[in-house]
């Protein structure tokens, strides 16, 4: 009886719509469909553009690196010219890594995938990444430390997204902090889920730049202290992954100097 009544109401409602309003709705639906098609076409075009740019840029860069390496070997007896050849080679590798980083983020964004939520040992993963960055920034004498409230903390997360979150929020402090400073990492279970906190003694974020922290390709005043790549993608990607997992990420000052990044991912 209820279904019959609902059907009758729907029929009456359609009859009440004037022909002019019906045409307007149909025209609006056609416009929406056309815009959706244009967006889809632009995404495909964008993907093709980045692939072409990546290939066309990497080919000459590879030649530059190769020739610089040959020059470096031929100039072993000329210290001054060999220095220039080494710098050309280093700049080539730097540019190559920057292109790879941009492509990595673009591919991540264009990939349509469902979250694969599984129970993960988040402690061991964070511990492994901290150990990695201890080695990565050893020359800069940046000390990474990890404090865990419970060695058995597990979380229901997508492993790829969790990996990107941890890698991005741990790499930034080492990249932008002055030599001889410390990065403190803390992992604990909270009522809301799992909390990861990273504090550093770097330059922090200027008040007028804080609205740009999670923006894509945001260029802030802070510069890498060891010539590392800085494309403005780290916190952008971390933010995107955290929100996809239903979590929250925040960045505040860490007096007297530095920044504090807090991530809470719901354990559900």
Question: Can you put this structure into words, describing what you see?
Answer:
The chain is of the alpha+beta class and 268 residues long. Helices cover 55% and strands 16% of the residues. The chain is built from six helices and seven strands, in the order αααβαββαββαββ. It has helices at 2-16, 19-74, 79-110, 122-136, 159-176, 234-244; strands spanning 117-120, 143-148, 155-158, 182-190, 193-200, 248-253, 259-265. A five-stranded mixed sheet has the order 2-4-5-7-6, with helices on one face. A two-stranded antiparallel sheet has the order 1-3. Helix 2 (19-74) runs antiparallel to helix 3, helix 4 (122-136) packs parallel to helix 5 (159-176) and helix 5 packs antiparallel against helix 6. The radius of gyration is 26 Å and the shape is globular.
